Amino acid sequence: MSVASMDAATDLAAASTGPDEISRRLESLPASSYAWRLVILLSLGGCFEIYDLFFTGYIAPGLIRSGLLTTTTQAFFGFSGIGAFVAATFAGLFAGTFFLGFLADRFGRRAIFTFALLGYSAASVIMVCQTTSEGLLLWRFIAGVGIGVEIITIDAYITELVPSWMRGRAFAVNQATMFISVPVVAFLSWWLVPLSPYGIDGWRWVVLIGAAASMVIWVLRLYLPESPLWLARHGRTEEALKILAMLEASAATASARPKFIADAVPARAPLKVGFAELFRPPYLSLVALFMVFNFCQAFGFYGFANWVPTLLVEKGITVTKSLQYSFIVAFAYPIAPLLAASFADRLERKWIICGACAAIIVFGMAFSQFTEPAALILSGVLLTAANTTMSYAYHAYQSEVFPTAIRARAAGLVYSMSRISATFSGFIVAHMLRVAGVSGVFGLITSAMVLVIVVVATFGPQVQGKPLDA
């Protein structure tokens, strides 16, 4: 189809096609190289948020070595320990997801995707220059705000660009791509944290490298279209149809679309839902479910991910060796979601989450008991694989259950509970590590995962094969 004919078809469709029709047309799209490129580009942007989240644990030995922070503190809410650094990170993430999730719904996925990451980068550069624990924690909090907005924006973005029958694989690829940054930051930490190149602490170099590399987002944004569903829900149907035409043309299905135009329904006014309405039917039950889920799952994921080197040190392993083992374990982060993609759309999302949580319990307890390097690394790899499987599944799950008009806001609201949980988990894990050792930490994680399994298995909705806004 020529460009002129595509434009003519788009103009005709704009007069008669509503947001619901665009949703149905998106749902009927087959997989295409263009759709997968969009998923990859968004995921590359997300690499920097994962890099930032994970250096929280990997640079911890360097922060201790530099004298800025300590491993544990006598006071439960001690603000001179690693627990406070973890807490500052997730307090910022909470502020970004809870208070600013509406930005992507109001101003669009593309704009917020770009500017949230730039804000994080600037805050990280300033954090590198800090010489006091107070300054370090303040700018860590501000950087976390940018990351929080970025995470929920990417989830909504991907959800609205691919049909339901491939959404599980899209999120698995998304997580695999983003988690490539984990072995990168683990290697850089292993290499740089014990050193002080040019008289500058190694942990500062690790942070600065990630912030500098994130500038690639200015290039990536040029190749990303706005979400057609977001445009349609905001009355910009003509723009939405042009992007939809590109998606259809890339899948060689544009010529098959006129039948949908003929059956089109009148466009509805954009859905107006305030923050208070999220706590009333029909959204209340979903919000409550995912709030409980997110509060608990963060203990399983971040209770291990942010503490790997420190947990290994507590088991009697040297700082250098602990970073080396952590680097090896980190390779499971990008590989595991790719393996999980083989069943991502074959099984109902809720059962994937429950199975992953059961595996976290088993492999976590094994990690707490082993002392031999090979056994520690193997159990760490398997535990990481279970965590990443849970991660890709719930990122898709909690985005697709809410309607387009409030997707980022609602997902940000429920996701913010994991930020609160992770904020306090920094102090709780530090306390458990001091009073009960590594076994106590994994006892805490086990309790949280059991609660996740019970709640999701009992109340989780079925989403397999359902179009958005159904």
Helical residues, percent: over 70%
In what range is the share of β-strand residues? under 5%
Class, according to the CATH hierarchy? Mainly Alpha
Could you tell me how far the N terminus lies from the C terminus, measured between alpha carbons in angstroms? 31 Å
- How many strands? 0
Count of alpha/pi helices:
22
Compact description:
With 470 residues, the protein is mostly helical. 73% of the residues lie in helices and 0% in strands.
Structure characterization notes:
This protein has one domain (3-259, 278-459): MFS general substrate transporter like domains (Growth Hormone, Chain: A, Up-down Bundle). With 470 residues, the protein is mainly alpha-helical. It contains 22 helices and no strands. The two termini are 31 Å apart.
Highlighted features:
mainly alpha, Growth Hormone, Chain: A, 22 helices, globular
How do the strands and helices of this protein lay out in sequence?
Blueprint: H1 3-16, H2 19-27, H3 33-58, H4 60-65, H5 82-100, H6 102-107, H7 109-128, H8 133-159, H9 167-178, H10 181-192, H11 202-213, H12 217-220, H13 228-233, H14 237-250, H15 258-262, H16 284-305, H17 308-314, H18 319-330, H19 332-340, H20 349-369, H21 373-400, H22 407-459
Helix pairs in contact: 1-14, 2-14, 3-8, 3-9, 3-10, 3-11, 5-8, 5-22, 7-8, 7-11, 8-21, 8-22, 9-19, 9-21, 10-11, 10-18, 16-21, 16-22, 17-18, 18-21, 19-21, 20-21, 20-22
